[in-house]
Structure formats: C-alpha cells, structure tokens
Amino acid sequence: MAQSKDFYAVLGVSASASQDEIKKQYRKLAKKFHPDSNQGDAKAAERFKEISEAYTVLGDAAKRKQYDEMRRLGAFQGFGTGGSARRGPPGGGAGAGTGAGRDQGGIHFEDFDIGGLGGLGDLFNSMFGQGGRQGASRARQAERGQSVEVSLEVPFRVAALGGKVPVTLEVNEECPTCHGSGAAPGASFKICPECNGRGVVSFGQGGFAVNRPCPMCLGRGQIPSERCPTCNGAGETRARRTVNITVPPGTDTGTRVRLTGQGGKGQNGGPPGDLLITFQVAPDRFFAREGLDVIARVPLNIAQATLGTKVRLKTLDGKWVKITIPKGTPSGKRFRVRGQGIEKDGDRGDLIVEVSIVVPETLSPEQEDMLKQFAAAGGLKY
Fold first, then answer.
1. Residue 115 region by backbone torsions, left for phi larger than 0, else alpha for psi between -120 and 50, else beta
2. I want to staple 259 with a disulfide (CB 3.0 to 4.6 A). Which of 79, 224, 275, 323 is the partner?
3. What SS3 class is residue 122?
4. Torsion angle of alpha carbons 156, 162, 165, 171, nearest 10°?
C-alpha cells in the first residue's frame, strides 16, 4: 500500500513549527540542494524537488491548514493499490483522466467526499493550484512579485506627530543584462532536458502528482547555451531601493502598514508585490508615552520641591507651557495639561508632567552646615 511523504519530515520541522520557522528551514535546505550549487548531482536535484514540493504546501498558511486537516483525517493513507477509488485504464488510454495522478492510471480524487471539505479533487486543486495539463501553461503565466517585510525604527516625535521616514530595501528586480531571460547576450536556447520543454516537473505523492515549475529552467521550458553573467541565469537581481514611508500620527510600536505595489517586481509581466512595514518607536530622552498621553519627567531639587517653583517646558509640537509646582511637592507627583498629548483618530491625549526630585551627590562644607541648620530648625532627624 502506497503512502505519501510527510511534508514536515521532508523539511525536517515539527508539525507545530511556525510559518517563520518553516520559511527559514526551507531557505536553508534550498540553498544547500539547489541545482546551481550541485550541478550533475542527481540526488541533490531530487532532494531539491522534494523540498520545493513540501514548501509549496507548508509555506502557504491556507494550504498548510488544508494539508493538516487531510493528515488528521488520514486522507493521505491507502491511495496506492486496493483503494476504493475509481481508476482509469493503465497507461492513460481511452477513458483515462487527465488530472494530476492519472497519467499512470492514478486515482480519480473527485470521486471522494470527506464531509464538509467536499471532493478530494477540489481540495487538491485548491492546495496545489494546478493539474497535469494546466501546469505547463500556468508556469509561464504572469506571477505576482514577492512581498517584502521590514521592521522600521522611527523617532518618538515622528511616531507621535506623523511624518515621513526614508527606508532602503533590497528587492528582486528584472536583470538589466538579460531582461529576465537568464541568457547571456547572443546565447542560443535549447529545450530543457529536465522537463522536456513543459516548464514544469511532476512530483509523485503516493496516489497523486503535483506539478511545479521546473528547477532547472525555472519554468521557462528552455535553457540558454550560456548563462547571463550578471544574474547567473536567474533572470533577476537583488536591487537596493529607497522609499519614503509615511508614518501615521499616533503610531506605536507594532503598528503595521501595507504599501501596495512597493515590493518585488512581478514575473512575466505580473504585478509587483507589497511592502509590509512594522514600526518600532525609538525611545526619547525626555518624553515617554502612555496610550495617547505624553509623559514628561521634570527634575527638581530639594529646595524647589519644598518651597515651590514654576517650570517651563515644550510640548511635542513645540509650544511652551508653564507649570506651577506647589510647596511640598513629593517626587512622582503628576500635573496634567489637557489636550497637549498625541492625537489619533479624532481623540487627543494630555501632557502629563511628572516631578522627579534629584538629590545632590556631594555638598560643600558650607552647604552641609546650612542643611543641618535647616533640619534642626524643622525638628528633622538625620
């Protein structure tokens, strides 16, 4: 009885691994077993196919969820011989199906229904995206560019008031030398021996097959006699690009924004990906934040706190305000200035001035005598 591979085992991760862990492991393995790094090594090429196949499913959160449900239901077990599925004639003759897994007399998945998930044929199509005859044409269709995720640190005041911050990104761009063909100038092309010009290769999985872009020709169906010296045949290069990012007023650490079309360039004329930004707010030397309130910590000496004083300070937007500190103010006492905090979505917080009493580390003999006299006059022990 045939049994499918375990995609988690192929990538060497646990079934509870996060999407980031799966992505990191895939990149590590793909780099190790990529055909460009292991030319002529059939085992490495086969391993690369397995890795790509597994990541196609596990790297997509929606497909992974469906795959996990299939594993839970045991739907990947027993699809070899002796199953209850209807089969086409051996060798794909008259009456044979044309979908994935039928070219060799495979199983007709649409005959199965597993309750709320519907037919297996529909489920596999949604998981793997294409059937046997459709794969070659889809491999050459326009593909959306990669989405780029970055973490951007912004100054406290810019985050509070809003503004623009430049960020430099590294994205995939079409190679300027070969314009995406992967060929050196003047090179000729021949049919790819790995996929015979189809642009896709088929990965067997027990009783079904999955078609994916060929790793040798990268889905083009042909390979050049000489690779492009700039991109080594990839058809794209890493490029640095500076983008001015608009920071919304009231931005806090963890706030995310999506900039449509600011990511990597699309394949075969496809649209560019998106830029996903997670903001990290840098601390300020004077201000802190509590919700929409801005906290300003003002140091006072003992005399100011005891006798009372007035202090002037600037708000976030540069206005001067004057605060009266009454006699006998203790350290940590707060004074509120209404409407001088952070504004967001029509609401605005306050400026809160927090007093911090600073004790001198050293005193001159004269200052020490005066402090002792003051303490004695007030009946204070020391």
1. left
2. 275
3. helix
4. 110
Predicted TM-score (pTM) above 0.85: no
**334 three-state secondary structure:** strand
- If you count DSSP H runs as helices and E runs as strands, how many of each does the chain have, helices first? 9, 17
Tokens (6 digits) for 254: 């963890």
Q: What is the pLDDT of residues 271-320, one digit of tens each?
A: 888 888 899 999 999 999 999 999 999 999 888 888 899 999 988 888 89
The reported pLDDT for the residue numbered 157 is 92
pLDDT at position 189 over 80: yes
Residue matched to tokens 């189809």: 198
Structure tokens at 28: 């590590």
pLDDT in tens, 45-75: 888 888 988 888 898 888 888 888 777 765 5
Q: What angle do CA 166, 168, 169 make, to 5 degrees?
A: 135
49 and 30 Cβ atoms separated by less than 8 Å: no
Burial class (CB in 10 A: 0-12, 13-18, 19+), 164: exposed
Question: In sequence order, what DSSP letters do the residues of 139-193 get, joined into one string?
Answer: HTS-BPPPPEEEEEEE-HHHHHH-EEEEEEEEEEEE-TTTTTS-B-TT--EEE-T
Q: Which amino acid is residue 10, in one-letter code?
A: V
Domains and CATH numbers, the chain: 7-139 (1.10.287.110), 148-280 (2.10.230.10), 287-377 (2.60.260.20)
Q: How far is CA 24 from CA 13, 95, 347, in A?
A: 10, 44, 41
pLDDT of residue 289: 93
Q: Quote the Cα angle for 228-234-236, to 5°.
A: 95
Is 160 in contact with 241 (CB distance < 8 Å)?
no
% residues pLDDT > 70 (the chain): 76
Task: Write down the pLDDT at residue 377.
Answer: 74
